[in-house]
Amino acid sequence: MKKILVVEDEQAIREFVVINLKRAGYNAYEAENGEKALEIYERENGDFDVAVLDIMMPGQYDGLAVCKELRRRSSSIGIIMLTAKTQEMDKVSGLMMGADDYVTKPFSPSELVARVDAVYRRVAMTESKGDSVFQEEIKSGNFALNLRNRTLLKNGKPIELTQVEFQIMEYFFSNPGTALDRTEILKHVWGENYFGEEKIVDVNIRRLRMKIEDEPSNPKHIVTVWGLGYRWET
Question: What gap in Å lies between CA 201 and CA 19, rounded to an integer?
């Protein structure tokens, strides 16, 4: 059963989200605040595929704090933030803290389910690859990407990646020195039918640079191709 955690303080919205996710085949757990969400996560031993988090919630743990805590505990769980149109900086902050995607309120049931399905497929694909036979490692300069255990090494030292970051790196490693436009990256990582905006690519690239570059403000590996996208260089 596909297991999802829905965290939203407004009861009407929470029930709307839960009902539609259950109709789509998800086993939905709901929480009215961040503290309750973390309690449920702990009680279920972290056994969730996806979490849907409202950014604006009362209490010590708003959506951003819950996102940060869930990502600290798991690199594989899919995280989607629910945001208002006016929360532009919160969208970026959520992505920088490890969220995979965001959905802007108001949203339709079909849009929400499509975005959740896309994140879930990524989680499921990650799990299934652990049991399949395929090229185990791709090396690029001082970096080594292990496709079985989903890890990245730089000079032999591990760099922790979210699943989105890993898929971007896998795409770069498979196309070294090639200029990849944002649309290509978006379709490859988020799927052909992704509803969102291309800027989600830029935020993830910024996050990746902070992890792998010696000088993130002067990147040597993930190079910007102006007016197009990005290129991987060793």
Answer: 30
